[in-house]
Amino acid sequence: MSTVAVKPATMAQAFTRALRDAMAADPAVHVMGEDVGTLGGVFRVTDGLAEEFGEDRCTDTPLAEAGILGTAVGMAMYGLRPVVEMQFDAFAYPAFEQLISHVARTRNRTRGRMPLPITIRVPYGGGIGGVEHHSDSSEAYYMATPGLHVVTPATVADAYGLLRAAIASDDPVVVLEPKRLYWSKDSWNPEEPTPVEPIGRAVVRRPGRSATLITYGPSVPVCMEAAEAARAEGWDLEVVDLRSLVPFDDETVCASVRRTGRAVVVHESGSFGGPGGEIASRVTERCFHHLEAPVLRVAGFDVPYPPPMLERHHLPGVDRILDAVGRLQWEAES
Amino acid sequence: MTVMEQRGAYKPTPPPAWQPRTDPAPLLPDAEPYRVLGTEAAAKADPELLRTLYAQLVKGRRYNAQATALTKQGRLAVYPSTTGQEACEVAAALVLEEQDWLFPSYRDTLAVVARGVDPVEALTLLRGDWHTGYDPYEHRVAPLCTPLATQLPHAVGLAHAARLKGDDVVALAMVGDGGTSEGDFHEALNFAAVWQAPVVFLVQNNGFAISVPLAKQTAAPSLAHKAVGYGMPGRLVDGNDAAAVHEVLSDAVRHARAGGGPTLVEAITYRVDAHTNADDATRYRGDAEVETWREHDPIRLLERELTGRGLLDEAGIEAARQDAETMAAALREHMNQDPALDPMDLFTHVYAEPTPQLREQRDQLRAELEAEADTEGGTHR
């Protein structure tokens, strides 16, 4: 065990540390994007990297997302490991052709001869009062694209572990960084960061017996709060933090649902065609005989992301989660 | 009293003096496409190079004809011919050193073959047995790119990475006239110029993007003129003059290799065949136009130059034809063999390690194949 004092650190600091450690460990790691150099990124995640590693390894690019990702493809072809920043969720859309037509499938179309170890950092989600195009939850698009891994941390330790694992991966990984958790703090030892987690493992954040809340990213703290509040109703809720959307950890999720017999999927992005539908379907297929109730979804509404003054009505909060838990046909138990 | 006078003594502060970042004059292309064959410049051309280009053009023409025939026999799903554009295809491959990289579009199979890739492997995408047949690292040829212009930023990134590593590598990226309207064309050229990446962009302006003529594609004086807006030189060349294309591309490659940054080369050529075998070119252009271009055929131009100067005789022409025939026969023979495909390959290269979800689907397919094999061994339904 380390003797260094465990100090509170923010999630943004953990991301920065992950980038710095990855760059120090491997000269092939290059960070690139709009404003990542001199400014250190609009969320300061790349703070100090240009100074420490030079502008050739932490590069301010022209303002062009397709160009950022497209040139990263060429750099990866030549043996580098680019880490690109998309600045804000909705800003990534111009890069989608590069992402879908090349990043995701070059390994496959070259029969494994040309892997592309690219990490795509996408600050995502709402709750920070951002104006239009600054709060989208775009995970369903990434999940629907074969060839990409998709991860999203909810804790400071996972922010470090998942980003290191993403950069180390020989496949392209989309790292969805929950914007509203950037400044969340946790006791975390920056002198001895958490070992790198293999991508694809979910974790039980809070054990419980009554029902499972299946969630990820920015909705994890909301579910933890809901689980605390549920105690007043006599419900003991288990919270599963997926951490990785692709690959999906059926094992951990289904083990939990088989224990509790009830499940609610919670996420910010829209319900229709969203991740919750896929998750509910997987759980139903695998755990049908253990289920006491249909798998419910608590998600953002199926509307374009609302203006900041209305977003609190859109984002799934504690009350909406508890309401769903209440609808899990408890009378069937008695 | 006018409104301006009412405002009295207001005088706007003059803005700081504006300085252009780059003098645009040397970047502008010449008014006429550069030509060598049939001009005084031809006398300075290396006879050996001209003979090599000739042999490659004849082979290339035969390759186009053979591949087109293979589509009619159902051996290729589709073939976008470069008949009439062989000079661009061949020169693009020949100007590169071994360590350099070629970034072809879906139409540039011929350049890929001229670079040394096995003709059968170069046709894998168009045959339909896999997406890319060849190993991109073996000859340093990127996979044939079907989306338009999206390979251009890859070329920029690769050239940039090589330069960061201190390697002497130039990337040559090929795109059509239609592709210059895509956003990726703009982003690639802009990145290349800002980074001074050792890249050469070759636009083969063959007159049409499927059916849409150049006049509906751009209002620019030429596609080469677009270079000046990015701060790189633009060169205009007769794309059917193999010696001219070779010279202009060689200059651009040399310039890039010396640290001079990217160049945009527009080669004016013509697609004599239809867009692909699925296209009916008579709907958008007349025979007379095609005939005019047949007169300006790349093989005819070079043959005229070589025979006129006594560098090629009937025997030489015949030898080139025979050589091309041998290549075509070998191609036919290989393409008439049915490729052996393993359905399990569907899952092999999606990720470095298959996800649990893919492992499940792989098991499902394996079970289906086993059931199929059992059925075939026993009674068919």
TrEMBL record, chain A:
Residues 9-184 form the Transketolase-like pyrimidine-binding domain. Its cofactor is thiamine diphosphate. Gene3D superfamilies: 3.40.50.920, 3.40.50.970. GO terms for biological process: branched-chain amino acid catabolic process; response to nutrient. It is an enzyme of class 1 (oxidoreductase). The keyword Membrane does not apply. CDD domains: TPP_PYR_E1-PDHc-beta_like. Keywords: Oxidoreductase. InterPro entries: THDP-binding, Transketo_C/PFOR_II, Transketolase-like_Pyr-bd, Transketolase_C. PANTHER family: 2-OXOISOVALERATE DEHYDROGENASE SUBUNIT BETA, MITOCHONDRIAL, 2-OXOISOVALERATE DEHYDROGENASE SUBUNIT BETA-RELATED. This is 3-methyl-2-oxobutanoate dehydrogenase (2-methylpropanoyl-transferring). It comes from Streptomyces tuirus.
From TrEMBL, chain B:
GO terms for molecular function: magnesium ion binding; oxidoreductase activity, acting on the aldehyde or oxo group of donors, disulfide as acceptor. GO terms for biological process: branched-chain amino acid catabolic process. Residues 1-28 are annotated as: Disordered. Residues 63-326 form the Dehydrogenase E1 component domain. Keywords: Oxidoreductase, Pyruvate, Thiamine pyrophosphate. Its cofactor is thiamine diphosphate. Signal peptide: none annotated. InterPro entries: Alpha-ketoacid_DH_E1_comp (IPR050771), DH_E1 (IPR001017), PdhA/BkdA (IPR017596), THDP-binding (IPR029061). CDD domains: TPP_E1_PDC_ADC_BCADC. Gene3D superfamilies: 3.40.50.970. The keyword Oxidoreductase applies. The keyword Oxidoreductase applies. PANTHER family: 2-OXOISOVALERATE DEHYDROGENASE SUBUNIT ALPHA, MITOCHONDRIAL. This is Pyruvate dehydrogenase E1 component subunit alpha. It comes from Streptomyces tuirus. The gene is pdhA.
